[in-house]
Design the sequence.
């Protein structure tokens, strides 16, 4: 039985190609601090509310969604993904009462937390 083994330079080339392909698909970037984003203290508190309640389903700084739609630029658009106007009233209603697969947060978030969350969403 005659076995041939890859030459070392071929193995190194194959490994380099795999590394390049793996890194090419990697779009993760370092999380910016509140100061780097220029957030006010209220917006920074809203970011923590977002991290604790919304981030498992919504992306703040990417156009790609998770389980729910991305919230990047949510206030810069005329309408929400649901087709409702992108304004404080409609977004607050969605947070309080939920929508489709999104759970309601009316029993778990205070008025101040919702206000700071809205101020943070406006920075996206």
Sequence:
């Amino acid at each position: 039985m005659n076995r041939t083994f890859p030459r070392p330079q071929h193995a190194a080339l194959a490994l380099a190609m795999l590394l390049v392909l793996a890194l090419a698909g990697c779009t993760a970037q370092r999380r910016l601090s509140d100061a780097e984003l220029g957030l006010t203290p209220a917006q920074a508190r809203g970011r923590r509310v977002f991290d604790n309640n919304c981030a498992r389903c919504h992306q703040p700084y990417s156009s790609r969604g998770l389980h729910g739609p991305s919230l990047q630029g949510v206030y810069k658009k005329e309408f929400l993904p649901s087709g409702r106007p992108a304004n404080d009233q409609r977004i607050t209603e969605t947070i309080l009462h939920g929508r489709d697969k999104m759970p309601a947060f009316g029993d778990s978030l205070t008025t101040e937390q919702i206000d700071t969350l809205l101020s943070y969403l406006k920075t996206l």
Residues 8-24 form the longest helix (17 residues). The mean pLDDT is 84. DSSP finds five helices and no strands in the chain.
